[in-house]
Amino acid sequence: MNELISQEYEEQNMGSWNHSITQSRVASLLSNDERFVVPVELSLDVSQIDLSQFGVKAKEELIPDVCLYPKDGHRPKRGDDILKMPKMPLLIIEVLSPKQIIDDILAKFKAYFALGVKSCWLIVPVNESITVYSAPNHFRTFGTDAQEVVDDIMDIHLPIQKLFRW
């Protein structure tokens, strides 16, 4: 049964062209900020919390599209690796793929905030918008009419036109 749920989850979250390009662009743009390291699709160990209270089906790990850690933060020693990161990032970014349901992502955001994440972004490539959450029900949405995406919690100003240049 777990195999079937896992397969359904993978099919639902399969990346598309726009998803992939948007994910790589946002990671690239954020990598220019010397304060942070920007892992993509890092497995986060969330076994310390019951995710079902947020309506999240996962049990022990969540894998956001992009996350942000302080540059001087926890890193493995040279030659070592971390299969499931126990320390939560400062920022989580999810890029909506065509078959994903926004409510599923928002449920994960609730879990991330409960785990100590400071900020979450939802990027929707199809309408070229970014919604920055500083708490589960506190957010600002930026579209292509804005000059930049502003995350006051993280002190990030990202030029939106560089993200959505097709």
Quick rundown:
The chain has 166 residues and is of the alpha+beta class. The protein has a single domain (2-163), classed as tt1808, chain A (Alpha-Beta Complex).
Account of the protein in words:
With 166 residues, the protein is an alpha+beta fold. The protein has one domain (2-163): tt1808, chain A (Alpha-Beta Complex), CATH 3.90.1570.10. The chain has 4 helices and 10 strands, in the order ααβββββαβββββα. The chain has a 6-stranded mixed sheet, with helices on both faces. It has a two-stranded antiparallel ribbon with strand order 2-3. A two-stranded antiparallel ribbon has the order 9-10. β7 and β8 (138-142) form a beta hairpin. The relative contact order is 0.16.
Class from secondary-structure proportions: alpha+beta
Average per-residue pLDDT, rounded, comes to 90
Spatial extent as radius of gyration: 15 Å
Q: Could you give the order of the helices and strands?
A: HHEEEEEHEEEEEH
The low-pLDDT segments are: 1-11
What gap, in angstroms, lies between the N and C termini?
40 Å
CATH class: Alpha Beta
Count the strands?
10
The CATH level-2 architecture is identified as Alpha-Beta Complex
As an assembly, this protein is: single chain
Strand order of the largest sheet: 1-4-5-6-7-8
Overall helicity: 25-40%
Query: What is the third-level CATH name, the topology?
Result: tt1808, chain A
Helical stretch count?
Answer: 4
